[in-house]
Amino acid sequence: MIEQIYTKRLYLRKMKMADSNSLFNIWSDPDVTKFMNITNFTHEEQAKEMIDFINQLATEHKAIRLTIIEKESNEIIGSCGFNSFDVENATAEIGYDLAKAYWGNGYAPECISALVDYAFTTLNINKIEAKVEPGNINSIKVVEKLHFSFEGTRQEYDESKDSFYDINVYSLLK
Q1: CA distance 57 to 23
Q2: Any idea where the domains of the chain sit in the sequence?
Q3: Dihedral sign, CA of 71, 73, 77, 79?
Q4: pTM for this one?
Q5: Would you place residue 160 in the very low, low, confident or very high pLDDT band (cuts 50, 70, 90)?
Q6: To the nearest whole number, what is the mean pLDDT of the chain?
Q7: Rounded distance, CA 108 to CA 172, Å?
């Protein structure tokens, strides 16, 4: 599947176990995990387990997550990828997270745009979905900037952190 993608400022590559400390620092921030379906991590072993789980899903062609590296600083600044694939219907769900220090600098749209291009041209995906909590204004701005269309709200669609929550669904067609 995807091994690496380059953008103007970013390098996206398959997650490695060596990324665990940097990803732990990102995934332990409650502001970053606020709208993720995980609770913020409390020890690096959780990041190692997550990397192992994500890479297993990639091996099974069910999902893929890439580490986001800023080229200039060579710093790991987040992760992005496809949370799921529906091969039969040529659909994929996209997801991403960034370290708080990098919010508002256009990195999310840059990496998502590269993933969208890769999905449409290489993976033969026809439709990409983004499932965003209604309160996640920053992610809504990202998908709207990339011309995703709002499809609607699925009420109490997902359960995470011991409660159900609504999800806005956005999509982009090839």
Answers
A1: 18
A2: 4-129
A3: positive
A4: 0.92
A5: low
A6: 93
A7: 16
Structure tokens that stand for 57 in this block? 């899903």
CB 63 within 8 A of CB 81: yes
Helix (H) or strand (E) holding 121: helix 107-121
Tokens of residue 11, six digits: 């390098």
CA angle, corner 36, sides to 51 and 126, nearest 5?
80
E strand or H helix that includes residue 20 = helix 20-27
CATH of domain 4-129: 3.40.630.30
* Nearest in space to 99 (alpha carbons), one of 148, 32, 168: 32
81 burial (CB, 10 Å; 0-12 / 13-18 / 19+) is buried
Angle 35-8-25 from CA coordinates, rounded to 5°: 35
Q: What is the pLDDT of residues 15-57, one digit of tens each?
A: 999 999 999 999 999 999 888 878 889 999 999 999 999 999 9
Pick from 112, 158, 111, 108: which is nearest to 131 by CA? 158
Q: How far apart are CA 65 and CA 41, in angstroms?
A: 18
94-117 residue pLDDT tens: 999 999 999 999 999 999 999 999
